[in-house]
Structures are given as C-alpha cells and as structure tokens.
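Our consortium's second objective concerns turning raw sequence data into structural hypotheses that experimental partners can test. To show how far this objective has progressed, the report includes one record in full. It was chosen at random from the queue rather than selected for favorable results. The single chain below, 269 residues long, was entered without modification.
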Amino acid sequence: MPRSIIDFYDPLIHGKDSKHRTLNSILSRSDSWLEYSHDYIQILFPLPEPSPFNYFAPVVDRATFEAFQARPELRTRLKESFLRILKFFGFVLVEDSGDVQVEPAPDFASASQSWFRPMDHNHLRITRVIRSLRVLGLEEEALAFFAALKMLAERSKGRVSKTSLMYWERAALRPLFARPEDRKINKASGLDFLVEFDGEKNKKASPMKDPGGEEGGTETPNTTIETTKDCQQEPATLPTKIDVPKTTATGDTPTAPLPATNEPIAPYG
C-alpha cells in the first residue's frame, strides 16, 4: 500500500503496521523490548530498499518521499522515533539556535552496553536509521548522529568495526540514490525520484551557467564514482563541532572480509 508509511506517521490517522501496532505503541515500549524485537525498526525507519529481514516492512516510494519532504508534521513524528532510538542507544539530541548535535546521554555507559561493541546487530539498525532520516527529510539529524558515532568510534578503538563505520559513513554522506552496500555509485541503478532529488539539490548548491551566461545549465554526469570520490561531496550541513573526514574507510581492512562477488551486502537491520 503506497500510503501505509504516510498513514502510520500521520498524527491524525494513527495508521497501524502489519501487526496492528501504532507509532505511539511502539515508542512506548521498553529498551529491553526494543533490543530483542526485530520487526519494528523497519517500520519506524523505512527505506527505499526492501528489508532482507522483514518481508512485511514498508518501502519508501515516490509518494512517500514527496509527502515527507512536503509535510512537516510527518517529519515531526519521525523525529519522535529518532529521539526514542537515540535514548535506546544512550544519546540525546541537543538543539541550540538552529545548531543540531547528538551527544552521549548521562546514562551512555549503561545504555550503550547493548551495542557499543564489534559486530553487534544494532550496527545494522544504525545504518538504517541514518539513511532513513536522510531519505525522509531529517538530514541534519542524520548527520549529527553520524558525527557523534564517528567521534566515539575514534576515541574508543576496537569498539566499532571498520566495516560498520564504512557503512555508517556511506549512509550519511553518499547521494541518496546510492545504497550503502553498493561498491560503486551508479546513477543508472538509482531510483528515479532520488536521482531527481539529488540533481535538484546539487543545482541549488552549485548553480551552473550555460554558454550564454544564464544559470541552469547542466554538467555531464559522472555516473560511476568510486566511494572515496563520492564522499568528498560532503553535505554542507555536516556538523562542524566534530571533525569528520571527507573520505570513507574503504581503504581499511574490515573485520570480516568482503565477498569477492559483485553481490551487494545488506547492511540494514
């Protein structure tokens, strides 16, 4: 159903998921329930890609994408989901005069025991959260979350695998049409509405001039870009209080070796 995500997040409709749960009922669950239940994260943070773990998980289509871009009340409800999952992970969102930061909460040491370690299933959830927030219009919050994760990982060597960091960075910094699991960025394989959105965003950020001197000319796209190149196109809204490198960790040796085939790895929870 193309409107299922919209109805689920609509504050007037209070739509239900496939298990007849509303957003409020999921957000009211305990941290223990959030840890051991595995079919809600795909509902709270949907993606344009089908879930490899939840057959009934909704998928973001053009109508859903455009609704979240246009309707602040949907993004407000999505932000409630983000605040709840931040609490679960041991973080808080700090907003001051338009500046958005994610910081460790006072109970971070205890709250993070469920995920702040190598090869934990919550790392897949984090990749999903970052990408979903960006797709559904909460770019600043997604980048602030990634910046906090990156800082913690750098200060606590060995607690987060280089593979997890690589996927988090791809989810945060790649164009929206590019999936974190893709080895290369290829516009031809991206969803049309995400390719269009990224194109318009780039035009606004760097308006070009045609030979006649008028703005609006288009450059010849480079449809296949290596990961390290694409992450150099870092969004201007990346938080400035935490130093985040503009290149990915693709040169690092991952904890688990990547397969030799061209099949993508599913990095989502």
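The partners drew two points from this record. The longest helix spans residues 72-89. Strands lie at 91-96, 99-104, 184-186, 224-226. Both points have been shared with the crystallography group to help prioritize constructs.
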